[in-house]
Specification:
heterodimer; A: 322 residues; mainly alpha; 13 helices; flat; B: alpha/beta; 9-stranded mixed β-sheet; 17 helices; 9 strands; disordered N terminus
């Protein structure tokens, strides 16, 4: 009955004067059309609010308290931040995060670019090589790091064995300053190079082959093609990998933790204590949750700063190119 | 060019959000094991320990289940106490996921009696109350709060000796017989002088001692007052015994008498028990079982045990069993820990694993024990003597923190060439950062 009534009546055409009142059913449809997308994305935002936004805000709240594991919180304002910014161990871990980050990210992306370039040619067993490249990425951090800890062992490690063959004295990788950082960077490079190479490869394959043909016609050799066709075409991909690697490097945690035998101090003098380890040590070794929350927030802000810097830089470069 | 770049921008935002989520999650995520509901059926007792207590290894859990048909024991163990303790603290704080029986290391027991008495069961109100009296002098008082509540039953203590490799000592022309060796090391300085001799004639790649940290812990283990004084004040900074032990150990590290292997952490340390990268190691009784595990069958008769320099008594380590206040099966758990810590079971554990008993009854039983793995060393006699002559140590809530900072500082002297004075200062900063 109502259905009949609600149907648009022929002849009652719009535009005869005044705002048209659509029947409610049409309005419902229109409203549904407008609101449905919001409804569909709601689950993500609800989950994000529960597991992303709330912890974020709550961590900020905790960071303003003295909160030792197992005792009650007490408000101390910004004391934790004062403690953090006057703490040598914090600056040490910040510096180590940067050095390990550079040591691992730069060679990793360069290697990945080279590998992707090679794999972009028609090679025999190309699929196998591509899958093989992704294997380290599929390996668990724990397993990889434990194996690398043995490989970099002082007395019975393979690396020192090989160095011994060429007459170099055994190196105490884990206890040295730069040596430990290099060892950890090697683990990171080993794990992530293949992943980045695959991303580069995908990027390369989206570059039109016409461009290469045109370049070839103009007499560009392979290296020139790489420099003047591949690299510019890959710029957005490269930016993406740099951003992701930077974030990954600033959060580096599992490798140094396990390389140090599960200890959060990052070596006797903190020579490979990253920000992540420093936070973990405050929170779970010392039970200082307030301080750990402070470290977490400062790290968060640092990462946001880095990401903004990255995008700004790339925008500048993009603009200069035009 | 511009469109792909724009595409990547939302990604960076999502990534930043994900980062934030990941970081904050690590802080808020808590262990949330299911709390067992009390039931009329068979009682399931959860036992959560660290390292090697020896109950599972010697089949004592199975034996208890056989004697008590209504009880089923679920057992889990974390290898490192430094990982076990923070996890336990998280669970205690969140109020879920704790087991019915938890192990507590002696360096933590003061923290428990001082700061956490509301989280643990007073054993005087349980069937375990009759077991409290059977211990050597200091063991149970250390687990008793100011108000007299007893929060744990002692398992083992850590009387300490020196374990050494006779085969390596022979190569360097040093005595291999325990008594003859003991006679040549009346003091720690004499012990290190032997180390100098060893270094001069030792096989390549073999150091006298395993680590400066281990040496330091053995030296302080003979002291009564270590990090706290009798009134409960933190005095590590002014206690000459601590500083002198630190300097002795640091000196040994600087002279190259140690293998520079971090105990329990460096994979090379574990390998060293069989490869011979060190000839001696400070040997609390629980180290006996550790050596057997790491050196394996091939290591039988490679090791021997003698007393600490000058025949001094020392105590390094030991543990308690306790029942969290949130346990649903306090009575059953209390019966279990009373049985596990009874003299017969303590003696069994010592015979098979090496953890030295803490009840007077069990100590009397094991006095004559020798260990075929260690060249038939009279380990019962050696560790009993060490336990008898060991001073009653004053324990404090931050013992574990200070000990770990000292060990790390000594490792930095050994491996990164830090001067002992600088390392001492760094340790102090670390400690005040944590305790404060």
């Amino acid at each position: 009955m109502t259905v009949q009534l609600d149907r648009p009546v022929p002849g009652d055409s719009p535009g005869t004067g005044g705002p048209v009142r659509l029947p409610w059913r049409s309005r419902l449809h229109a409203w549904e059309g407008r609101s449905a997308p919001y409804l569909y994305v709601t689950p993500f935002f609800l989950v994000f609010a529960a597991f992303g936004l709330f912890p974020l805000v709550y961590t900020a709240f905790i960071s303003l308290h003295r909160y030792k594991l197992g005792s009650r919180m007490s408000w101390i304002g910004f004391d934790n931040y004062v403690w953090l910014f006057t703490n040598g161990a914090f600056y040490n871990s910040l510096w180590k995060t940067i050095t390990i980050g550079v040591l691992s990210t730069v060679p990793q992306l360069m290697l990945a670019l080279g590998l992707a370039h090679l794999l972009n040619y028609r090679l025999r067993g190309r699929t196998f090589l591509r899958v093989a490249m992704l294997m380290p990425y599929a390996t668990s951090v724990a397993a990889a790091t434990l194996v690398f800890a043995l490989i970099f062992g002082r007395d019975a490690g393979i690396i020192n064995g090989l160095l011994g063959l060429v007459g170099i004295d055994p190196v105490d990788w884990r206890n040295g300053d730069w040596t430990a950082q290099i060892a950890i960077s090697v683990i990171v490079i080993w794990r992530w190079t293949g992943y980045n190479a695959l991303i580069y490869l995908a990027g390369m394959q989206s570059i039109s082959s016409d461009l290469y043909e045109a370049a070839a016609l103009d007499g560009a050799n392979r290296w020139q093609q790489f420099r003047h066709v591949t690299l510019p075409g890959l710029r957005p991909t490269i930016l993406f990998t740099i951003v992701v690697s930077t974030i990954g490097a600033s959060q580096l945690f599992g490798e140094p933790l396990l390389f140090g035998g599960g200890q959060a101090n990052g070596g006797p003098v903190g020579q490979y204590q990253t920000l992540g380890l420093f936070m973990y040590q405050q929170g779970w070794q010392f039970g200082q949750l307030g301080r750990a929350a402070t470290v977490a927030w400062v790290t968060f802000l640092l990462i946001i700063g880095l990401v903004l810097l990255n995008t700004r830089l790339s925008k500048l470069r993009g603009g200069a190119d035009r | 060019m511009s469109s792909p770049r724009k595409l990547s921008q939302p990604r960076t935002t999502t990534a930043a959000i994900a980062v934030a989520a990941a970081i904050t999650l690590t802080l808020t995520a808590c262990g949330s094991g299911a709390t067992p509901a009390a039931s009329s059926g068979p009682v399931e007792l959860k036992v959560s320990l660290f390292g090697t207590f020896g109950y599972d290894e010697t089949g004592l859990f199975k034996a208890y289940e056989a004697q008590n048909p209504g009880v089923k024991i679920t057992y889990e163990s974390t290898q490192g106490e430094d990982k076990y303790w923070p996890a336990l603290q998280t669970r205690l704080a969140s109020g879920s996921g704790v087991a019915d029986v938890q192990g507590i290391e002696v360096a933590r027991i003061s923290d428990v009696t001082t700061n956490q008495s509301d989280k643990w069961t007073d054993l005087r109100d349980t069937p375990a109350k009759d077991s409290i009296g059977g211990y050597i002098g200091w063991k149970e008082p250390a687990a008793t709060t100011k108000d007299g509540a007893v929060l744990g039953l002692g398992t083992d203590i850590g009387p300490t000796g020196i374990c050494y490799r006779p085969d390596l000592l022979a190569k360097a022309g040093l005595p291999t017989d325990p008594a003859a060796l003991a006679a040549q090391m009346p003091t720690w300085d004499a012990f290190l002088a032997l180390g100098e001799k060893y270094k001069a004639n030792a096989p390549a790649g073999s150091a006298w001692h395993d680590s400066a940290g281990g040496l330091y812990n053995a030296i302080v283990s003979t002291q009564k007052e270590i990090y706290y004084d009798g009134s409960g004040k933190l005095v590590y900074n002014s206690n000459p015994a601590v500083r002198s032990a630190f300097d002795t150990a640091a000196g040994a590290g600087q002279k190259g008498l140690t293998a520079k292997l971090e105990q329990f952490v460096d994979p090379g340390w574990d390998q060293g028990f069989s490869s011979g990268s060190f000839a001696t190691i400070a040997c609390p009784s629980w180290m006996i079982g550790y050596i057997k595990g790491k050196a394996g069958d091939a290591g039988a008769n490679k090791w021997n045990v003698t007393t600490l320099p000058g025949g001094a008594g020392g105590n390094w380590g030991g543990a308690y069993l306790a029942i969290p206040a949130s346990s649903q099966h306090k009575d059953e758990a209390a019966k279990l820990i009373a049985w596990l810590t009874a003299p017969e079971q303590q003696a069994t554990v010592f015979d098979k694993v090496g953890n030295f008993p803490s009840t007077t009854g069990a100590i009397a039983k094991v006095e004559g024990t020798t260990d075929p793995y260690f060249n038939n060393a009279p380990i019962g006699k050696i560790f009993s003597r060490s336990a008898e002559t060991s001073p009653v140590q004053i324990l404090g809530p931050e013992d574990g923190v200070v000990k770990s900072a000292m060990t790390q500082a000594l490792l930095s002297v050994e491996t990164s060439g830090a001067s002992p004075a600088d390392a001492w200062k760094a340790a102090g900063t670390k400690i005040s950062n944590q305790v404060g």
